[in-house]
Amino acid sequence: MPGARIFLGVPFAEPPVDQLRFHAPVSLQPWTGSRQALTAPPAPLQAGRSSMSEDCLYLNVFAPLTPGPHPVFVWIYGGGNIGGSANNPNFEGSPFARDGVVCVVINYRVGALGFLELGNALGPDYKGSGNNGIRDQVQALRWVRQNIAAFGGDPDQVTVGGESAGAKNVAALMAAPDAKGLFHRAIIESGSAQTVHGMEQAEAVTALFLKVNQISARQLLTMSAHDLLDAQRKLLATYSANYPFRPVVDGSFLPDIPLKQIAKGPGADLLIGTNRDEMAAFVDPARAAEPLNQKELSNTALADLMPVEAAYRSAFPALSTPDLHIRMLTAEEYWIPCVRIAEARSSQSVPTYMYRFDHRPGSGPFANRSAHGSESAFVWDHAQPETRALAKEIHAAWVAFIRAGWPIATGLPEWPVYRIGKRETMILDDESHVESDPNGVERRIWNNRL
To answer: Which one, of 412, 401, 338, 407, lies nearest residue 160 by Cα?
Structure first.
């Protein structure tokens, strides 16, 4: 694509296969001579993919045509930590390269290979395997630190960003000592800093994984990729809540819940936000009016949600049950956890900028909804012609934040730092504007509940 030098399938670690399965990533051995970087890498092992492999620790680089040093943007895709790929066309990084940013999109192990804790089941050599997906991301950031100058990037001006599970993983990176100094700014799009497992929960997931498949932990080391995915499918069907594959608070790689670590500050400059109707992408219209169940929740026990629902019905009596559930689940999964992060950083010396993406398409499966992931086309400047103006503004704001730590763009009003006193939030829409404490009634409903 004009405006970018593109390098595909660049390895950043040794293949995590055979004896390295379920182990932390191993630094790549250097090579001499030239290596082709023209072929997109396979996706990590996951259901529903044709081009995938355990040998997946590769990244794609989109570099400006002009000499550097340029700021660097490292992107972590979402997918519930069970799917996703650096080759998602939504994350084609040429628009960032066109605007003077070296964009790096990384692969990492997902599902059991990236997030199944086996230290108790297989012994100390496998301790910490529940964070291998996050360790892969740290390894990619180390590669960036060591090599990005060769692509025109500035290793001292790195922003890490992600959406959905990728954004939750960014929060984990903000809390992980091993990632300290590897990035300087962070972007969290629809994430959380509390959707994690403690060791007891992580080991319970492993025990369930083994039980429902009637296998031993030792069999995981040699079973085929097909059988491993089938075993993972059985766990997902059985697990009682949403999002079983999470970062693990193990006391070392992740010393504490990321939210608590982030609150200690000062950390990286942060741009954070959510979409107004996130859960419209997940609530099944056929059963949207039915009672909620635990599998729809990531951060709350179902019993604890009942008083929340009663408070919502009292505060918003005109809302239908489907609309009420979309708003509640949007808050539970994404919005309130992002508010908690912004609150935790409100008094720190480093800035936090908060947004809510409100743009709603007039047609399509999510007509009149700002559904989960719908901001991506705007951030990456891949939007359709009818929304090109807003996409240019949002993309420019992200570029400005990556470049200088302040999301400023022609067409957007001045974007204030988030403080608890005013809770000023940029509402991104055709008429973008700043609101103080948007959804304040809902926020107060959730106080002391999440």
So the answer is: 401
Tokens representing 242? 């949403």
Active site residues: 164, 278, 372
* pTM for the whole structure: 0.97
Q: Measured on CA atoms in the order 372, 376, 382, 387, is the torsion positive or negative?
A: positive
Residues 259 and 285 in one domain: no
Q: What is the CATH number of the domain that holds 118?
A: 3.40.50.1820
- Centroid of chain to Cα 49: 20
pLDDT in tens, 276-327: 999 999 987 777 788 898 999 999 999 999 999 999 999 999 999 999 999 9
Give the chain's domain count. 2
Q: How many CB atoms lie within 10 A of CB 441?
A: 11
- Give the 3-state secondary structure of residue 38: strand
**Separation CA 395–CA 103 (nearest Å):** 13
**Could you list the residue range(s) of the whole structural domain that residue 448 is in?**
279-450
Strand order from edge to edge, sheet including 58-63 = 5-11, 58-63, 102-106, 70-76, 153-163, 185-189, 269-275, 352-357, 424-428, 433-436
3-class state of residue 129 by DSSP: helix
pLDDT tens track for 329-348? 999 999 999 999 999 999 89
* DSSP helix/strand/coil, 125: helix
Q: Confirm whether 299 is domain-assigned.
A: yes
Is residue 213 domain-shared with residue 347, that is, in the same domain?
no
Residue 244 sits in the same domain as residue 291: no
